[in-house]
Design a protein that fits this description.
Layout (H helix, E strand, L loop, with lengths): L30 H26 L13 H10 L10 E3 L5 H7 L3 H9 L32 H15 L6 E6 L6 H10 L8 E7 L2 E2 L2 E2 L19 E6 L3 H18 L3 E6 L21 H11 L5 H23 L19 H4 L1
Parallel strand pairs: 1-2, 2-3, 3-7, 6-7
Antiparallel strand pairs: 4-5
Helix pairs in contact: 1-2, 1-3, 1-4, 1-8, 1-9, 2-3, 2-7, 4-9, 5-6
This protein binds thiamine diphosphate and magnesium ion.
Thiamine diphosphate (TPP) binds next to strand 2 and strand 4.
């Protein structure tokens, strides 16, 4: 019943999605794509729920993640040209991007390891808190806790791709509130210089909050994507709670950036289903759109899955991740003597002097 997905790059069944290259118009997923996308969305959600449970049980110090962004982040991960080097896409993601990485083929257990800060955590060797991946073989730059810095850093990989005329593009993603920071403006300026435009897809996940500050009252512009207009950057604002809309829009925006070698600013309206982070309790928020509940309703209407089958899938993912969290609990913590490993500090500095 759980459909395996060939994730990332050329393995993605793109044609089956009937993607229209015109932004804003789309057609339904074919049944196989609908089922694959749904399975990944559900796995991503259950995985976040497991991380929250781990945090609440004391198996971690902090939780931040992306329940409510699955309808946008799963299509994003499936459409990436995954690999290492300039001919593949570079990703400068944010702390709500676990679903994107899952769709690219990341093992969710590695995030459980980062939550538990084990030495086996491949992203930070137990140094960073959950949601901070770093995957060199897929051009995934280290995710940063200071918000928005990725928008300045992304200029570097996009500029390298421009100068070397390579095939890859740069993808950078952040939240709505972070667009008030200078790094976002820096990105707009650098990506749109006349004759030196950058192949960069600028993504804003607008969940209408910056921690506890509501979106209303913080923005003079109608849409964040309108901010590209002054720079002649093409843009769109879409319903990021709909995976079919998201797939079509991301696919079309990527196609534009890949072929025109120019920037595109895509804003996705998404939900924040467990609040900002563990700092605000991480409990389920009822008054937001739940993209999975909405998509499941469609799948039922189309006769692709029954409620019983979806419940069974949820139970399967829940049991699988619970089991994994128990295994991770037994994995070793980093040894104290490794504290200076993987940091810029020169541990031999005193001896050299
Ligand atoms: C440079 C910087 N300033 C402030 C913070 C504190 N901070 C953490 S998350 C956050 C809100 C971010 O809101 P938004 O960009 O909308 O992203 P969201 O968390 O809603 O996805 C802030 C202000 C930070 N981490 N880094
Ligand atoms: Mg926000």
């Amino acid at each position: 019943m759980i459909i395996p997905v060939s994730s990332g790059g050329s393995g993605v069944p793109r044609a089956a999605a009937n993607m229209d290259m015109k932004l804003g118009t789309f057609t339904e997923f074919s049944p196989d794509v609908a089922l694959s996308v749904h399975a990944l969305m559900l796995q991503a959600r259950v995985f976040e729920e497991r991380l929250i449970a781990m945090y609440k049980q004391g198996d971690g110090y902090f939780w931040v993640g992306g329940p409510g962004e699955e309808a946008f982040n799963i299509p994003l991960g499936l459409l990436v040209n995954k690999g290492q080097g300039l001919d593949h896409d570079f990703l400068h993601l944010h702390y709500r991007s676990a679903a994107t990485l899952l769709a690219m083929g990341a093992d969710p257990v590695d995030s459980l390891r980062q939550m538990k800060n084990t030495a086996t955590d491949p992203y930070s060797r137990g140094r960073n808190f959950v949601g901070h991946a770093s995957i060199r073989k897929w051009n995934v730059a280290p995710i940063s806790s200071p918000i928005e810095v990725q928008f300045s850093i992304a200029i570097g990989t996009a500029e390298a791709q421009r100068k070397t005329k390579s095939k890859g593009i740069t993808i950078v993603q952040g939240g709505d509130a972070g667009t008030a920071e200078g790094d976002f403006s820096t990105c707009l300026v650098w990506s749109s210089r006349k004759g030196s435009e950058l192949p960069i897809l600028i993504l804003v996940a607008n969940n209408k909050y910056g921690i506890s500050t509501p979106y209303e009252g913080q923005h003079g512009e109608v849409c964040i994507s309108d901010r590209g207009k002054a720079f002649k950057i093409r843009g769109a604002t879409i319903d990021g709670n709909d995976p079919e809309v998201s797939w079509a829009a991301i696919g079309a925006a990527m196609h534009y950036v890949r072929t025109e070698r120019k920037p595109f600013l895509l804003e996705a309206m998404v939900s924040r289903l467990h609040g900002h982070s563990s700092a605000s309790g991480a409990n389920f928020v009822k008054n937001e759109i739940d993209c999975i509940a909405r998509f499941e309703h469609k799948l039922e209407e189309r006769g692709l899955l029954t409620r019983a089958q979806m419940n069974e899938m949820r139970a399967h993912f829940t049991a699988e991740l619970l089991e994994a969290s128990k295994r991770v609990r037994k994995e070793p913590q980093p040894l104290p003597e490794t504290i200076w490993d993987y940091v810029y500090a020169d541990k031999n500095r005193r001896e050299v002097n």
